[in-house]
Design a protein that fits this description.
Layout: H1 2-6, H2 17-23, H3 35-38, H4 40-52, E1 57-59, H5 67-70, H6 79-97, E2 100-105, H7 120-137, E3 141-147, H8 150-163, E4 169-173, H9 187-196
Parallel strand pairs: 1-2, 2-3, 3-4
Helix pairs in contact: 4-6, 6-7, 7-8
Length: about 200
């Protein structure tokens, strides 16, 4: 990934996974991550469609793969299994097209102190568990995405680096129409913090 970026290569990524799964029959309230083991052929089909369209990187179906998010569907004890399965599916397709696989770390759905009850240490531990499964599955990099709290980005980075200090990490945040995150962070503030962590 860093070789491509350093060479100035334009890298086309994939798009939304949840949107595609809903189009292929997933209903509201279903766990997309459970589909990694119940409908692996559909996950492979989505990855293949993105690669065929020109994507050079695909993202494993692990956006909601932390224990905190999986708990909503009673799947928290299957976190490792579901994350590894997602990577194996993405890897099998990506290798056909010489694409890279990103391990997706999404929000936990909880607010971190002082705004909420989740400590940054507990959040980092959740992300460590997920990152370990993603790395064991064979991702090329970690993709922290759609975050609304700088503290949660920090927790995801800390958790990932506890497992592999050298893995490439990409991080993205989401901003509202006022140009701030839900927690009031500005794009410049986010950029300064995230780049300061070497991401």
């Amino acid at each position: 990934l860093m070789e491509w970026l350093s060479a100035g290569t334009i890298i086309l990524g994939d798009g939304a996974m949840g949107t595609m799964l809903h189009a292929k029959g997933m209903t509201a309230g279903d766990s997309p991550e459970l589909w990694n083991v119940t409908h692996p052929e559909i996950l492979a089909e989505v990855h293949r469609e993105y690669c065929s369209a020109g994507a050079r990187v695909v993202t494993a179906n692990t956006f909601g793969g932390t224990r905190a998010r999986l708990q909503h569907n009673g799947l928290e004890k299957r976190a490792t299994e579901l994350n590894e399965a997602a990577v194996q599916i993405a890897r099998s397709v990506a290798d056909e097209f010489d694409c890279l696989v990103g391990g997706d770390l999404g929000p936990t759905g909880e607010l971190i102190e002082p705004s909420g009850l989740l400590t940054i240490g507990d959040a980092a531990q959740m992300y460590s568990e997920q990152a370990e499964a993603l790395l064991r599955g064979g991702v090329d990099y970690i993709h922290i995405e759609t975050m609304t709290q700088i503290a949660e980005v920090e927790a995801a980075i800390r958790g990932t680096r506890a497992i592999d200090s050298g893995i490439d990490i990409i991080a993205t945040m989401t901003f509202d129409t006022n140009g701030r995150t839900m927690m009031g962070d500005t794009p410049l503030g986010a950029l300064e913090a995230i780049s300061g962590w070497g991401v």
